[in-house]
Design brief:
By secondary structure, the chain is mostly helical. The protein has helices at residues 4-16, 23-46, 55-69. The mean pLDDT is 76.
C-alpha cells in the first residue's frame, strides 16, 4: 500500500508525463520523477520493505532512475 507522499507523487507524474516537449517541462517531469522515487524508497525504508516487490515494479524504478540520471 502506498503512503500519502508516494500516492501524491504518482498523481503528479500522471498529470505531467506528457508535458515534456520543452526543456522546462522535461525538468519539471524529472523533478516529479525524482521525488516519486525518493517517496517510494522512503516508504520502503520506514516499513522495512523492499521498494519493489515484483519484477515489473523493480524494472519501473530502474527506468525512473535511468531517466532522471540520463543513463
Amino acid at each position: 500500500m502506498l503512503n500519502d507522499m508516494a500516492a501524491y507523487w504518482l498523481g503528479e507524474l500522471a498529470e505531467t508525463i506528457d508535458d515534456r516537449a520543452e526543456p522546462t517541462h522535461r525538468m519539471r517531469f524529472v523533478g516529479w520523477l525524482e521525488s516519486f522515487v525518493r517517496a517510494i524508497r522512503g516508504h520502503a525504508r520506514d516499513h522495512g520493505l523492499s521498494p519493489a516487490r515484483t519484477e515489473g515494479v523493480r524494472r519501473a524504478l530502474e527506468l525512473a532512475v535511468e531517466f532522471t540520471t540520463g543513463g
